[in-house]
Automatic annotation (TrEMBL):
EC number: 2.7.4.9
Gene name of the encoded protein: tmk
Alphabetical list of Pfam families matching this protein: Thymidylate_kin
Name the UniProt record assigns to this protein: Thymidylate kinase
Catalytic reactions of this protein: dTMP + ATP = dTDP + ADP
Source organism of this protein record: Xylanimonas oleitrophica
Lineage summary: Bacteria, Bacillati, Actinomycetota, Actinomycetes, Micrococcales
Domain of life of the organism encoding this protein: Bacteria
PANTHER family on file: THYMIDYLATE KINASE, UMP-CMP KINASE 2, MITOCHONDRIAL
Listed InterPro entries: P-loop_NTPase, Thymidylate_kin-like_dom, Thymidylate_kin_CS, Thymidylate_kinase
């Protein structure tokens, strides 16, 4: 693959549907472009990340700075061992959470310094940022209603924590509209995915490929009718 890779991150509070929407987007991009698509997540996208995920989400309580540093350590390893090599070979990488999660949760939710948290994370990944970040925005009531199973450490953090986290996401999206796509995630899975595809096709220069694929489908349908 000679074309450069594309890096897409999904962000938002719990219950927004990030995992489902990332998977559906990956399937669609693979189908319409024929490119390799790598779907991953933070924390937990590597074997080491899986161990760190258990520690930060299901382990003992820890102070906010320790939590932020563990996320940064996972991100450094994740990018060096998985994300950057995939991008260098021309793949589309779609990650469920990235740097913006740390800023929203540890700076917004935990009330650490936003500049400090972002600096640590950017240093950990040598400045690598997504081409596009999709924010699946849901209010606290919708988020709570969608959660199932035993809540993890972050899900148990309380309504004020999650309000601050959402506000931090929206501030970041407003400050950098060239990178962010904000989607109202309260709709159906199908409606949300349709909006993501429209926005991503334009942002990642996939429109000609998508139109060509659509025209081919139409032509095939006409041939079958004949």
């Amino acid at each position: 693959m000679t074309a450069p890779g594309y890096f897409v991150s999904f962000e938002g509070g719990d219950g927004g549907g990030k995992t489902t929407q990332a998977r559906l987007l990956a399937e669609w991009i693979g189908e319409v472009t024929g490119r390799e698509v790598v779907v991953t997540r933070e924390p937990g996208g590597t074997p080491l990340g899986a161990e760190l995920r258990r520690a930060v989400l299901h382990g003992d309580d820890m102070d906010p700075r320790t939590e932020a540093l563990l996320y940064a350590a996972d991100r450094a390893h994740h990018v060096a061992s998985l994300v950057r090599p995939a991008l260098e070979r021309g793949a589309v990488v779609i990650t469920d959470r990235y740097i913006d999660s740390s800023v929203a949760y540890q700076a917004g939710g935990r009330e650490l310094g936003e500049d400090e948290v972002e600096s640590i994370s950017r240093w950990a990944v040598e400045g690598l940022m997504p081409d596009v970040t999709v924010l699946l925005d849901v209010d606290s009531a919708t988020s709570a209603a969608r959660l199932t199973g035993e809540p993890d450490r972050l899900e148990r953090a309380g309504e004020d924590f999650h309000r601050r986290t959402r506000e931090a996401y929206l501030r970041r999206a407003a400050a950098e509209p060239g990178r962010w796509v904000v989607i109202d995630a309260a709709g159906t899975v199908e409606d949300v995915q349709a909006q993501i595809r429209v926005d991503l096709a334009a942002r990642l220069d996939l429109t000609p490929v998508v139109e060509e694929a659509t025209d081919s489908d139409v032509a095939a349908g006409v041939a079958e009718d004949v």
